[in-house]
Amino acid sequence: MCRKVFVDVNANFKADGTIIPLSIKWEDGTVYRIDQVLKVCRTASLKAGGAGIRYTCRIGNNITNIFLEENAWFVEAKK
Q: What is this structure's pTM?
């Protein structure tokens, strides 16, 4: 089971309304640069609960999902 971890996100807001996350700040203050956004879709987080826009991102060698749920960002983290 996963837990929902709310994170700070630095994002680029384009004129057409597109939001591109650039980095996330983890609970301990570490900032991770998002190297590439691979996919964007509206869906539910089946692991941690909640729904919103899922951004599948490459951070270094890892693929992770971050979610924009209303006005808050969260990551699915292992308990």
A: 0.87
Interior angle at CA 59, CA 64 and CA 66, nearest 5? 35
Domain containing 25 equals 2-78
Q: What is the count of structural domains for the chain?
A: 1
Neighbours of 60 (CB within 10 A): 10
Closest by alpha carbon to 20, among 76, 63, 68?
68
Report the C-alpha gap between 34 and 74 in whole angstroms: 14
* pLDDT computed for residue 36 by the predictor: 97
Q: How far apart are CA 41 and CA 61, in angstroms?
A: 22
